[in-house]
Amino acid sequence: MNILRLLCSARGADSESHRLSDQLLEHLSRRHAGTPITVTDFDTNTLLHVDGGYARALAAPADPDGTAAGALAVSDRLIAALRAADVLVIATPMHNFTVPSALKSWIDHVLRVRHTFRIEPQGKIGTLADRPVYVAVSSGGLFSGPLARQPDFLTPYLRHALATMGLMQVQVFSVEGTARGPELLEAARTHGQDQLRAHFNA
Q1: Is residue 20 over pLDDT 90?
Q2: 138 a known binding residue?
Q3: What span, in angstroms and rounded, lies between the C-alpha atoms of 137 and 139?
Q4: Is 152 helix (H, G, I), strand (E, B) or coil?
């Protein structure tokens, strides 16, 4: 089983989203015990934004002839890696109520007409084979539950972007309130672990 993990925090392995995704991978490994598992990590913070050539290609009625260059070549590689993955894991913080710019850049590269979706009279239709997507989110504040004090534009946007490509099986886990002090951080971590155990019946 091939797992593609997107790492979207600038804090790297020190981030809460990375920590939660590590625990998620442990649950996946136990669920699929006996199955060879390969995890490919990709740091979305290494991506540049799409360029003019990419923008012109998307606006054209067909893909350009010749070898792709610039952002188009990067997009081809990222889409190929996504197609090869049996499972997608996204480890991301919430920045200003939504996805961080690094994750948005990955989405801009892979959510691509004629490659991961086509346009029909009824709208955009995903062309990727559906597969499980697990999202590990960390947030300094609370965005879910009765004590939430900030809006959540991350999960609905991410679900819609993934669904546009055909990825419907999206499960979100979270560690919220990480900026509220050590004691509440530990409680947030425990809550995230409880979400994982409940989903994986562990």
Answers
A1: yes
A2: yes
A3: 7
A4: coil
- CA distance readout (Å), 7 to 25, 31, 143, 145, 180: 13, 22, 21, 26, 23
- 139 in a known ligand binding site: yes
On whether the CB atoms of residues 132 and 87 are closer than 8 A, the answer is: yes
DSSP secondary structure code for residue 46 in this structure: G
Assign 188 to helix, strand or coil.
helix
**38-50 pLDDT, tens per residue?**
999 999 999 999 9
8 Å CB contact between 46 and 114: no
140 in a known ligand binding site: yes
Given phi > 0 = left and psi -120 to 50 = alpha, else beta, which region is 166?
left
- pLDDT of 202 higher than 80: no
Residue 55 to residue 58: CA distance in whole angstroms: 5
User: Which CATH homologous superfamily contains domain 2-201?
Assistant: Flavodoxin domain (3.40.50.360)
Q: Mean pLDDT for the chain?
A: 95
Two structure tokens written together for 15: 């981030």
Distances (CA, A) of 162 to 64, 112, 146: 25, 12, 27
Q: Is 17 annotated as a binding residue?
A: yes
Strand 2-7 with 87-93, pairing: parallel
Residue 15 marked as a ligand binder = yes
Query: pLDDT tens digit string along 81-111?
Result: 999 999 999 999 999 999 999 999 999 999 9
